[in-house]
Specification:
Blueprint lengths: L3 E5 L2 E4 L6 E4 L6 H13 L13 E5 L20 E2 L2 H25 L17 E5 L2 H4 L3 H21 L1 E7 L9 H4 L4 E5 L6 H7 L17 E6 L8 E4 L8 H10 L17
Parallel strand pairs: 3-7, 3-8, 4-5, 4-6, 6-7
Antiparallel strand pairs: 1-2, 8-9, 9-10
């Protein structure tokens, strides 16, 4: 299985080596387009001659009820994979943590090791990716904020070994919106339209680089910077994002999912839960 995600040739990362993704950018920077591109690339079975693509099972939390909320109409089991309220988001994250823990127990009892090394009768565990667009908006609800953060912490700290990953979108990754100890667990960091971001945002996203030393990019929608662990990069790399939103998203997703064979994956129906 190939875990590399190439949203452009200049913006490539390995989900397993650089787990969890944080995408930041001001309004109109193409942040949501980047999140969509990551998911389309992650969902595909197209990889190399020797290996299939990531084939992730994608879930979406869209508290603003915007672009991603409509994906439930054409994803397989879409009504179980797309939520828009904080209450349903908490439920989805809770069930995801329970699925992760069940997989852990099964792995430890039968195989052990990292999820990507487990092969049973030629089958592997399917990778899970949960995308949250506008995380700060989701965390505004005080009734569910602490619960959601506790589930996110568990996924960020324990998810990689079991094959569970988060992809988070927010305008400004400040500690008041998203605790610093959690944002630092995101090993792939993308800043869209960096020239429009303030220096504090740049420092929070790339604390190891002086903002003045960041590569210069043109101030256009779709321009971005990416840093990913596992790449031999000293500073983030610039890239230009294709306009994934111009694609016929419903048909693209239907095509991607129609090419994925459930028999490629280890059967988890004995313990797997859906919302």
């Amino acid at each position: 299985m190939n875990f590399k995600i190439s949203i452009t040739p200049d913006a490539t990362f390995d989900m397993r080596k650089s787990p969890h993704i944080l995408v930041s950018g001001v309004t109109g920077s193409a942040k949501s387009t980047a999140l969509m591109g990551i998911n389309l690339r992650a969902m595909t079975s197209k990889g190399t001659v020797e290996e299939r693509g990531p084939c992730v099972l994608s879930f979406f939390i869209d508290p603003k009820n915007a672009e991603f909320s409509r994906l439930n109409e054409f994803l397989d089991n879409g009504n179980k994979r797309v939520v828009t309220t904080s209450t349903m988001a908490a439920k989805l994250l809770r069930i995801t943590c329970e699925n992760m823990e069940s997989r852990y127990r099964y792995m430890n009892a039968n195989f052990g090791g990292d999820f990507s090394t487990v092969i049973r009768d030629g089958k592997v565990y399917r990778t899970v990716l949960i995308t949250i667009d506008e995380l700060a908006s989701l965390l505004l609800d005080k009734k569910t904020r602490d619960e959601i953060l506790s589930y996110m912490a568990k996924l960020l700290l324990l998810g990689r070994q079991a094959g569970f990953f988060l992809c988070l979108g927010m305008q400004r990754p400040d500690a008041t919106s998203f605790p610093r100890q959690l944002s630092l667990e995101c090993n792939t960091r993308i800043l869209m339209r960096p020239n429009s971001a303030d220096n504090d945002s740049k420092r929070m996203l790339y604390p190891f680089v002086d903002p003045k030393q960041l590569p210069i990019t043109a101030d256009y929608i779709g321009n971005g910077l990416i840093f990913a662990e596992g790449n031999d990069w000293q500073v983030p790399h610039p890239f230009v994002l294709p306009n994934y939103m111009a694609l016929d998203i419903p048909n693209v997703i239907r095509h991607i999912e129609s090419n994925i064979n459930p028999n490629w994956f280890i059967d988890e129906t004995d313990y797997w839960q859906w919302i």
